[in-house]
């Protein structure tokens, strides 16, 4: 398997960090914008898109700030995806920082996928 490349995306978003955290850290919140359905049992999250299931393990979670998962298919690898809420100290502008990994020839496609999903999140939040 080819090495995956790490990339980071930043999305300015008009929403309170507290509200945002609910959408990135809970199965019901993630079901609103990230996947068709999300279930969790402890640290194991099941994401469902068009009937296809992917499972991820919750690696870390810091209330109001970040959540980090590893796909089970990447178990044993250093790959993960993280959604982080960043608030500018001075302007109080809120951004979502996404860190993810993709095969080198799939990075652009992965970035576009995240852009679409964050766009869905902004619509759900009414901040589009």
TrEMBL record:
<feature type="domain" description="START-like">
    <location>
        <begin position="1"/>
        <end position="126"/>
    </location>
</feature>
<dbReference type="InterPro" id="IPR045736">
    <property type="entry name" value="START_2"/>
</dbReference>
<dbReference type="InterPro" id="IPR023393">
    <property type="entry name" value="START-like_dom_sf"/>
</dbReference>
<dbReference type="Pfam" id="PF19569">
    <property type="entry name" value="START_2"/>
</dbReference>
<protein>
    <recommendedName>
        <fullName>START-like domain-containing protein</fullName>
    </recommendedName>
</protein>
